[in-house]
């Protein structure tokens, strides 16, 4: 009975998978908000290195991973694929449950898969500092880690609610040499405007993105790094799913259903896209792909599919995506990485066209699922990852009723060691279930300038 399915370092994928090559119809391009025309590569060169801009628009199915990036990946990759025998037993389900464990990386999540690549490409083009935003802190700590490896400075704008909830993430960033500020700050024009208008705001990823983009645009030695949403970020994360496919070959099986939590979409896309590619090419047409999000920020389940800004201050290009409106400020749930008003355009397109579907959950049921997982499998998972755990448990219980022996796979995107305040509130019965009122979502959507 094999619990972990492991790959040798020499079996690690040497190319990322670009799903753009397999989309049935082209992705709607980002638009320049000033002209309404598709954005040009040179429009992005002020904040991104050219190699990442090329990856953003590439139609090649495979993109080689630089040897310098692979060398760092080997510190924690390949990551293990676990068979969740103890969870299966606890649930008394005939379903077979597998999970990819990304919590083994130095920062404790999947985020270094793209942070290392982005830091590398920026270093190669002579950039000295990176600016970014972070929600729960997994992305900020990952970029701080990656920047330190390539001798870059790093500035992180952390959503205020998470900055106050998760102080150890800030300490982690500072240990790797980064500076971290609660967003909105008084360091940027965008931050000052928000603070003046909403002095008690808990912040949002949209606001933090505005600050980080402004910081990068105003300093010649600085570029912006994004931890999710954009095509090149999702590309780098596909190493997760590529490894998993090799591991399922060893196990002589294939998932019937693939799950992952979604904020901007990077870990879910990274784990699922290689399987979605099989579906798009007709090789595995029956595989179901399920994204899991919070009821407090129900982008895919209640948002509008339209062009919108990626940030609150309207500094980014317009992206075609499911959105709750760029002014949307979600409640301060403990899954801080899922508090984003939009989602990755590729992920949204695939959802719109029916190749994947979305489910939304409350905080308390998510933490209940995390406890079931911890008391069977042992790992304390991040609140973000626990959304996928909840979906898998629900499906496993359904299989118990039907007798189906489905293979369920989810990406366990990070550990919850710095999220114990949320666990403690759950223990005390003080965890609040937020469901953003439909009328407020409607009002936010009606405020969109681009329909």
Could you give the topology of this structure?
Blueprint: E1 4-5, E2 15-17, H1 41-44, H2 50-57, E3 62-64, H3 67-73, E4 81-83, H4 85-91, E5 96-101, H5 112-124, E6 129-134, H6 138-149, E7 153-159, H7 160-165, H8 167-175, E8 179-183, H9 189-197, H10 205-217, E9 222-224, H11 231-237, H12 239-250, E10 257-261, H13 266-280, E11 288-294, H14 299-302, E12 304-309, E13 318-323, H15 345-352, E14 357-361, H16 363-374, H17 383-402, E15 407-412, H18 420-427, H19 438-446
Parallel strand pairs: 5-15, 6-7, 6-9, 7-8, 10-11, 10-15, 11-14
Antiparallel strand pairs: 1-4, 2-3, 4-5, 12-13
Helix pairs in contact: 2-11, 3-5, 5-6, 5-11, 6-8, 9-10, 11-13, 12-13, 16-17
């Amino acid at each position: 009975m094999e619990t972990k399915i492991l790959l040798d370092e020499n079996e690690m994928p040497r190319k990322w998978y670009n799903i753009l090559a397999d989309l049935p119809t082209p992705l709607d391009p980002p638009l320049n908000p000033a002209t309404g025309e598709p954005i040009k590569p040179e429009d992005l060169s002020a904040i991104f290195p050219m190699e990442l801009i090329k990856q953003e628009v590439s139609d090649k199915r495979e993109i080689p991973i630089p040897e310098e990036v692979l060398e760092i990946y080997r510190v924690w990759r390949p990551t293990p694929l676990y068979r969740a025998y103890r969870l299966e037993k606890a649930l008394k389900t005939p379903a077979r449950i597998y999970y990819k464990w990304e919590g083994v990386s130095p920062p404790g999540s999947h985020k270094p898969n793209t942070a290392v690549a982005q830091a590398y490409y920026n270093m190669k083009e002579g950039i000295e500092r990176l600016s970014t935003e972070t929600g729960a802190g997994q992305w900020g700590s990952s970029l701080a880690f990656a920047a330190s490896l390539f001798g870059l400075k790093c500035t992180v704008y952390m959503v205020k609610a998470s900055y106050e909830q998760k102080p150890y993430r800030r300490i982690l960033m500072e240990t790797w040499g980064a500076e971290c500020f609660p967003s909105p700050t008084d360091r940027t024009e965008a931050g000052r405007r928000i603070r003046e208008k909403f002095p008690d705001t808990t912040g949002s990823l949209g606001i933090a993105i505005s600050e980080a983009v402004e910081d990068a645009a105003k300093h010649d030695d600085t570029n912006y790094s994004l931890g999710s949403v954009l095509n090149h970020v999702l590309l780098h994360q596909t190493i997760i799913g590529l490894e998993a496919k090799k591991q399922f070959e060893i196990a002589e099986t294939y998932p019937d259903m693939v799950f992952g939590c979604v904020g901007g979409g990077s870990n879910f896309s990274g784990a699922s896209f290689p399987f979605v590619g099989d579906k798009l090419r007709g090789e595995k047409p029956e595989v179901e792909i399920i994204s899991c999000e919070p009821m407090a920020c129900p982008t895919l389940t209640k948002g509008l599919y339209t062009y919108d800004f990626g940030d609150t201050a309207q500094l980014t290009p317009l992206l075609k995506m499911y959105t709750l409106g760029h002014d949307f400020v979600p409640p301060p749930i403990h899954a801080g990485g899922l508090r984003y008003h939009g989602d990755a355009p590729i992920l949204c397109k695939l959802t719109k066209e029916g190749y994947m579907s979305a489910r939304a959950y409350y905080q308390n049921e998510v933490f209940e699922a995390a406890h079931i997982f911890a008391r069977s499998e042992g790992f304390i998972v991040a609140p973000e990852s626990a959304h996928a755990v909840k979906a898998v448990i629900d499906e496993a219980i359904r299989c118990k009723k039907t007798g189906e022996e489905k293979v369920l796979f989810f990406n366990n995107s990070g550990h919850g060691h710095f999220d114990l305040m949320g666990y403690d509130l759950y223990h005390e019965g003080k965890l609040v279930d937020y469901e953003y009122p439909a009328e407020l979502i409607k009002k936010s959507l009606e405020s969109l300038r681009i329909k």
